[in-house]
């Protein structure tokens, strides 16, 4: 019997699931080009806003995330039909460091076989991406609503691959984050081990200069599962993903699950490799509705004091 085919590579247009295009507003935050989806659709409302920050994967760009944004927003609308809501929602995208409109060095985005600095570049991109998201959290409302006419009181990171790893680091390090959906990424405590496994699979030695001691604080990271207490996390993985395999992060996922229970849901999709599907975008939108938008969204979520 032939094995079932495995989906490898993302068909971005399919991520809309047939939902119409959302409005798109372009802004610059001190030179950082940001796209905001769904802003026109919530004009006239006075509800607070949840901003979903959707980050793309390695070697991709923010324009591809437009399809993901349309599908996510459409799914959130569908989930809330006929129900009262406590927040409106928008989706925000931007290019990762050294990607898209910010690209300066193509080699820096490649893996070990073409880039001896792969570990350093990945660590720097994740760290810089977290800084960018925190900057956005600090200033997005000021740029969108300079008169204070609306409030953004919830930021929800989601991301694909590199963006998924970034999302996990935000969950660990950014105290204002309490809801997140990392997709085909691993907890940041798994970052070093899975990059080491990737290097060793290519016959490389995990030692300087490949793994510099100066970034050991980023590659030898303890789990510290208590950092995830009170958060609501949907971690999405392809069962056949060999680029960022869930087995490389399973121990950490189990450790987080053991502490926060239903606060972490791990969804492993059969027949999918390192790719995103329309159903993943749909489930992301439904998670946003459940924990950020619905009238019942505060139930079971530990309040984080003085977040903004």
Would you kindly provide a brief summary of this structure?
With 308 residues, this protein is α/β, with parallel strands linked by helices. 31% of the residues lie in helices and 17% in strands. This is Alpha/Beta hydrolase protein.
What does this structure look like?
- Keywords: Hydrolase.
- InterPro entries: AB_hydrolase_fold.
- The chain is of the alpha/beta class.
- It has an eight-stranded mixed sheet, with helices on both faces.
- The longest helix has 27 residues, at 118-144.
- α3 (162-173) links the parallel β5 and β6.
- Helices cover 31% and strands 17% of the residues.
- It has a single domain, classed as Rossmann fold (3-Layer(aba) Sandwich).
- The protein starts with 23 loop residues before the first strand and ends in a 15-residue tail after the last helix.
What are the low-pLDDT stretches, counting only 5+ consecutive residues below 50? Answer: 302-308
Structural class: alpha/beta
CATH architecture: 3-Layer(aba) Sandwich
The string of secondary-structure elements, in order, is EEEHEHEHEHHEHEH
Residue share in helices? 25-40%
Structural Rg: 19 Å
CATH class: Alpha Beta
Give the termini separation.
Answer: 57 Å
Summarize the biggest pleated sheet.
8 strands, mixed
Total strands: the figure is 8
Please, how many helices? 7
The CATH superfamily turns out to be Alpha/Beta hydrolase fold, catalytic domain
Can you tell me the CATH topology? Rossmann fold
Widest sheet: strand order?
1-2-4-3-5-6-7-8
Count of the separate structural domains:
1
On the 0 to 100 scale, the average pLDDT is 94
């Amino acid at each position: 019997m032939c094995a079932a085919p495995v989906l490898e590579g993302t068909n971005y247009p399919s991520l809309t699931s047939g939902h119409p295009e959302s409005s798109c507003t372009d802004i610059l935050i001190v030179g950082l080009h940001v796209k905001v989806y769904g802003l026109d659709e919530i004009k006239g409302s006075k509800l607070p806003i949840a901003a979903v920050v959707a980050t793309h994967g390695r070697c991709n760009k923010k324009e591809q995330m437009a399809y993901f944004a349309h599908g996510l927003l459409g799914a959130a609308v569908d989930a809330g039909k006929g129900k009262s809501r406590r927040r409106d929602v928008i989706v925000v995208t931007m290019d990762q460091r050294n990607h898209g409109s910010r690209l300066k060095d193509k080699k820096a985005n490649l893996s070990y076989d073409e880039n001896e600095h792969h570990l350093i570049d990945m660590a720097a991109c994740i760290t810089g991406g977290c800084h960018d998201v925190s900057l956005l959290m600090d200033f997005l409302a000021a740029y969108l609503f300079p008169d204070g006419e609306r409030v953004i009181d919830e930021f929800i990171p989601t991301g694909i691959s590199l963006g998924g790893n970034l999302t996990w680091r935000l969950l660990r390090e950014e105290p204002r984050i309490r809801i997140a959906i990392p997709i085909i990424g691993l907890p940041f405590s798994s970052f070093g081990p899975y990059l080491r496994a990737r290097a060793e699979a290519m016959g490389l030695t995990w030692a300087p200069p490949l793994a510099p001691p100066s970034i050991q604080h980023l590659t030898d990271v303890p789990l510290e599962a208590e950092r995830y207490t009170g958060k609501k996390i949907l971690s999405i993985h392809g069962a056949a993903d060999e680029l960022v395999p869930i087995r490389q992060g399973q121990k950490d996922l189990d450790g987080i699950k053991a502490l926060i229970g239903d606060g972490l849901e791990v969804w492993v999709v059969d027949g999918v490799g390192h790719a995103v599907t329309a159903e993943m975008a749909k489930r992301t939108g439904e998670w946003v509705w459940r924990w950020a938008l619905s009238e019942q969204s505060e139930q079971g979520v530990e309040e984080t004091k003085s977040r903004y």
